[in-house]
UniProtKB/TrEMBL annotation, chain A:
This is ATP-binding cassette domain-containing protein. The keyword Nucleotide-binding applies. Keywords: ATP-binding, Cell membrane, Ion transport, Iron, Iron transport, Membrane, Nucleotide-binding, Transport. PANTHER family: IRON(3+)-HYDROXAMATE IMPORT ATP-BINDING PROTEIN FHUC. InterPro entries: AAA+_ATPase (IPR003593), ABC_transporter-like_ATP-bd (IPR003439), ABC_transporter-like_CS (IPR017871), P-loop_NTPase (IPR027417), Siderophore_ABC-ATPase (IPR051535).
Automatic annotation (TrEMBL), chain B:
The keyword Transcription does not apply. One of its GO terms (cellular component) is plasma membrane. It holds the Pfam family FecCD. The keyword Electron transport does not apply. It comes from Marinobacter orientalis. The gene is fhuB. This is Fe(3+)-hydroxamate ABC transporter permease FhuB.
Amino acid sequence: MSAFFEVSSLDVNIGDTSILRNISIEFRESEVTALLGHNGSGKSTLLKVLARQMSPTAGQVSLLGTSVRTTGARAFARMVGYLPQHPPGTDGLTVRELVALGRYPWRGPLGRYNDEDHGLIDQAIADTGLDHFQHRSVDTLSGGERQRAWIAMLLAQQTRCLLLDEPISALDVKHQVETLRLVHRLAEERELTVIVVLHDVDLAARFCDRLVALETGQLIADGNPRDIMDPRVLETIYGVPMGVMERAPGQWVSYVH
Amino acid sequence: MYAEASGLPASRPAIPAKLPVAAVVLWFGALIASSAPWFNELDIGALLSAFWTFDPNNYSSVLAHYSWAPRVSIAILIGCGLGLAGAVTQQILGNPLASPTTLGVEAGGQFGITVATLFAPGLLAFSPDLAAIAGGLLAIGMVIALTWRLGFSPVTVILAGLVITFFLGAMNMAFLLLKGEWLGNLFIWGAGSLVQNNWGPFMELWPRVTLLAILMLLLMRPLQLLQLGQTSASALGARVGLIRALALLLVVLMTATIVSRVGVVAFVGLAAPVLARLLGARTLGNRLLWGTLMGGGLLLLADTLAHWASTWGDGSLVPTGTTTALIGGPVILLALQSFRNTHHMPGQESGPAGFLPRRRSPVLVTGIITALLFITVIVSMGWAPGLDGWNWTAIPQWDQAWVWRGPRLLAAMLAGVALGLAGTLIQRMTGNPMGSPEMLGISGGAALVMVLIVLSGAEVSRPGQLGAATLGAAGALGLLILLARRHRFAGNQLLLGGLALYVFMDAGLRLVMASGGTVASQLLNWMYGSTWLISESEALGLLGFMVLVSGLLLLIVRPLTILPLGDTAASSLGLSVARARLLLLLLAAVLTASATVVIGPLSFVGLIAPHLARVLGQQTVGRQLIVAALVGGLLLAVADYLSRIVVFPNQLPAGLLAALVGGVYFLWGLSRHGPHLTTPE
């Protein structure tokens, strides 16, 4: 697998405060990666830098070997889709209209939507199980459905990479699992590179191929779920003594001592 | 796996039928109303053909061709243009109350023309657009600079637009008072008159409006992305800043082009898209289309009303701007009822996190301001220009000078104190650093009553005026309470109600301005705060009243600290939220009314004093109240003194001076200290 994102010696400062320090990491193609860490560890900031929502103070981010700084706005949006932590209200847009906006990077301000576009929009809606909701206003949906509508928009964008900032933090357990299962399935079907910020380490281990942890702006752990789901590693990540049980192969339960 | 799908709409939601029906009714009504007076003289065929030809032997036909037809055409053209510009503006800012009027673009255009008339008449002859466009860009630039760090939240942008409108209005007024003889006809122009006597202006205008409209439509898809908020829009590859700037530029060009030809036609750009939205235009395309159509119909209707009113009112000109404002006010009130969650509008970013603001010792700050106040009083009482140069009045002679200098100084100071207190109350209550009595429309209510008195031609004594203004303020407040009751007196809704009241006041003012004469200058003097009208007993009465109110203020310090935490938190702390808000509102209204009769409705003191108190490091409610009161008193005391001496032996209204100086400070201060001002909502 080749590197999709390549981050080298990245620094981000806001004012005098250092948010990220000397981060170097690669994200490989068609791999689902979870960013872990407690609040303020810089994981959302790293995601924003990858999504070009923030520019780094120092260091390089390259996408498929070229620096992201030189890529055009729409060209970048054709490769990388980003879901912010709190998607805004949508003021009466229906689900289908929201999803259709995902075609903007491909068609631009004036290009016509052709059958291919409409097909992709239908596909995105079907993949997220929103067929019945497509003519409902997004604002009237429940939290889980709304999250799926936004993910559908990212799918219609036909990017090779999804950056999701805490997509499940406001959902109940059922919808958390459904959303992550959806992301996992889509990543497999469409060979997507997914980087997702998560709080729940058990769910991360269950649905992601690789776990990366940050602490006060530095990388402190990086590996597959088996490496990370270890009491000592978890303790360094979260700063509290923790234990881990492997209930079944690939299914861990962590707990606080 | 997913929820039940029964009862969900199976197809794309269509536009509700009431939208096209309303548009058709509006257009037909306006067209028929407009052509009704001609039915006696011409048949329908002849009337229709007046748009392209005329019968030289028939006077009515000539008149219809050169007067009626171009007026109808230009009203429709301008209405459509402004409606479209308004719809685009609302989309750019994700704000259902944005429009060229509320963003100050129209006031800016007017200001540009005024300046050009005075200082560069050659430019005006060359191209009136340039001056208006420069003014419009200036206004929108100031609004953006003001709200940049406050995160463009809808209500804040509108308030900034109002501040700019007031400020540029005050500048216009200052020019008028100093160079009135040059600007007489600017007033009628400024009030927006669509009277035509040939096809020239229409022919000049239509290609420009059409071109700008096409350019706006080309931006439609990027504009649609803005609905998703800055982050998501840029994640989809849109250059948000560029799109916003381009679209705003087009809006300014459209508005300024129109303003430079026909003057300020206020509120069509606001009312038309809002109306389209209320009637169910949901998608951007629909909103642009129906907003445009509604704009054309609305302006034609407003213009016809103005025409009728002019005919009936023994020929005195009623400018179209007046009637549009009369239509605009109710539409804003309608909007207030319908847009429930204005603080969750799309595209609104949460403001940058404020850092811990600096605090300073209150004793030191109050000490310094009190000392300054004393110095001002002494200088104001003692040191003044006379017929033979500047001279000093010794303290023993003050009892003789008191009659001339004392009451007005005392009244100005007390008005400043009242406004400082009222402003702090309102800013704390609404959690918005741009809130103030001026913005809440309480001053506007008082002013509206005064305008009505002047219009009716009745001679009312000074105490009578005082009483009437208080009634007006109380009326405005009552209306606000009625409107806001549903929203449990929530801050943003109050501010919107205030905006509607301001619109009504504006309509009355335009009417008086257009009628001109001594009535207008009398009203102007009051509007801009002429402290020389105050008598000794009035000043002393105000003093007693202020002492009384200050006692009441002690009761509300703690509720005011709790309220900004939000309704839920406040009521779970045991505070009766609605009752606390009502008490606060009453206090704010009474304070504002007492200040308004002295200094007029347009000074910025209620906005600036609380702001300065924060900049001076007074963050808790009690300290901010005290310092804001002192600062307000100091500001108006200085303004009163300056108003006496700047153009001696003439006088400038103190309120105007305060508004000019305050406006400049506010523009500078807010763009600089912006982040420190964001109070948590």
